[in-house]
Amino acid sequence: MATKKYKKEKKEVNMKLQWAKFIVVLALYLLFLYWVKSWLGLIVVPFIFDAYITKKINWQWWKDAEKPVRAVMSWVDAIVFALVAVYFINQFFFQNYVIPSSSLEKSLLTGDYLFVSKVSYGPRIPQTPLTMPLTQHTMPLIGTKSYLEWPHWDYRRVKGLGQVQLNDIVVFNYPAGDTICTEPVYQTYFYDLCYGKGREIYETNYPNPVDPANLNHQQQRDYFDFIYAIGRNYLKNNPHEYGDIDARPTDRRENYVKRCVGLPGQTLQIKDRIIYLDGQPNKEPDNVQYRYEVLFHEGAQLNDDLLKDLAITREDLDVSLGEWSSLKDYGYLIPYNRHVVMPLTHRAAKALEERRDLVDTIAIVKGFGQEQDLYPRNMVTGWTCDNYGPIWIPKKGESIDLNIDNIAIYERPIRVYEGNELEVKNEQIYINGQLAKSYTFKMDYYWMQGDNRHNSADSRYWGFVPEDHIVGKPIFIWWSSDPDRSGFKGIRWNRLGRMVDNIK
Fold first, then answer.
1. What is the largest distance, in Å, between two alpha-carbon atoms of the chain?
2. What is the pTM of this model?
3. Distance (Å, whole) CA 142 – CA 132
């Protein structure tokens, strides 16, 4: 009798505990649904109720199976739970990001691992929800897509802690990654390849190629359309080298990280390398880099200690126009020829200038950047990386007058990012078949640039970054390893735990 009473009391206690767990889990789940404003998730509530209270579905049937099945399924259960948890956390709260290149040097360094907050600007509801966790767009080893294109949901962002602020460092999806060549080495270069190959074929086959600078804007559009069509056709007909031509949804495009130097509604212009917003100069980052022409003494040697002190990396030297010989046993680098072009901070340039035992002359490179590589790619502007614009950054709800002189700048936001049909005929602009004299933007746009100004693929090359491409905000550096050094020497101890907001 006592045993029955004890079992009954124990059962009641367990049931109360189960109800308590259910209420806590349900409350948290309902708060999450309220946050993301997606009440479709209520269909999951009966399953949560069953898992804690009614237990009609045997969720862990494998625990009663034979030992081999039980052992395998216990691992499968743990892996599935971990993948779902990682997917949920990465999608709505935070993810890791590693700096792959020197475009933000010396603010963020190649080899920095970042904790990126999704809640800072508000997480996006996934546009392609069926994807393999811990992948961006491609399955490792097998090289296939790591996501299903259906279902595809429209862009929507959950309310976050704030909005993108001027000079924030931001992680976002690569805007020009909408169309790709599937061969991995060419995936981020589709538009460059179209123009480069098209121009090469055109100049080879036409003895007197047209100079687009001598054409009016309508003729320039027709000329560049022709060049790109040639290039695209070449890529299409050479899949053995470039792969197939494919498209990627917004949230599956490559992740980039740059500094936001222009906000929606501002007018940006670069004059002699300085960024002006609405006519006022924007403060340069403390560690901004530009390329410098350096004339070394005959037989000059840069040792490893000097490179480390001036924060000059092997990658910096690799992008220079000079060539280097390495004496690995002694840690020296020697330029093959005296004249070298290399990216330097103002501090490093000044320090090198004072090293009269190494350097004859040093001067900043002016007028950097080829016009045909810059945005917009279908109009002659005369702009360079150092002297660019002025250009108005589109803002949600605001309108701009459209004409043949500015349509090249705003065509991509109107057509690609906001999904309109756009055609220009006889210097007249047609949007969705209707003659258009103006356009009202549906999204906010941003202007992103790297702090390594002469070695950064950024908005100067591919234009505006739409709000639906914004991923999150880097919060702190949780790990940093120097690719030029190995072992403990390669760990940048002074960067571990460093807050990104403190890097100006």
1. 106
2. 0.91
3. 13
